[in-house]
Amino acid sequence: MKFDRRLFLNFDWTLLILVLLISSIGLLNIYSTGYSLADFKQSHLYIKQVQWIFIGLACMGVAFCIDYRLISGYAYIIYAFSLLLLIGVFLYGDAAHGSQRWIVIGGFSFQPSELVKLTMILALARYFDVHKTDKGYSLRELFVPFLIVVIPFLFILKQPDLGTALILVILFLSIVLFVGVEWKSLLCAAAGCVVLIPVGWHFLKDYQKERIVTFFSPEKDFLGSGYHIIQSIIAVGSGQILGKGFLKGTQTQLKFLPVQQTDFVFSVFSEEWGFLGGLILIIMFLILVLWCLKIGLHARDMVGTLISFGITMLIFWEVFINIGMVLGMLPVVGIPLPFLSYGGSSIVVLLTGIGLLMSISMRRFILRP
Amino acid sequence: MGGMQDLLEGHEPHEFRQRFKTLFILVTVALSILVIRLWYLQIIKGDELKQRSENNSVRLRKIKQLRGLIMDTNGYVLVDNRPSFDILFVPNRIKNIHDVVKKLNYLYAERAITFSTNLPSAKKVKRFVPAELEKNISREKLAIVETHALDLPGVAVEVNSVRQYLAGEMMAHVLGYTGEICQEELGKNTSDEYSIGDTIGKYGLDKYFDRYLKGKSGAKQVEVNVRGQEIKVIGKIEPVPGYNMVLTIDSYLQKIAWEAMKDRAGSVVVMDPRDGSILSMVSAPSFDPNLFSGGISFEDWEKLSSDPRHPMENRAISGQYPPGSTYKLIVAAAALEEGLITPETKFFCPGSFELGNRTYQCWQKKGHGWVNLHRAIVESCDVYFYNLGKLIGVDKLARYARGFGFGAVTGTDLPREKSGLIPTKEWKLTKFGEPWQMGETISVSIGQGFNSVTAIQLLNAYCALANGGTLWRPRIVKRIETGDGRPFKTFNPEKKSSLPISRKNIDILNYALWGVVNERGGTGYAARRAEADVCGKTGTAQVIGMPEDRKARRKKIIPSRLRDHALFVCFAPYKNPEIAVAVIVEHAGHGGTVAAPIAKKIIDAYFKLKVTTQVQGSGFIAF
Question: Best residue in B1, B37, B42, B129 to probe A by mutation, most A CBs within 10 Å?
Answer without folding.
Answer: B42
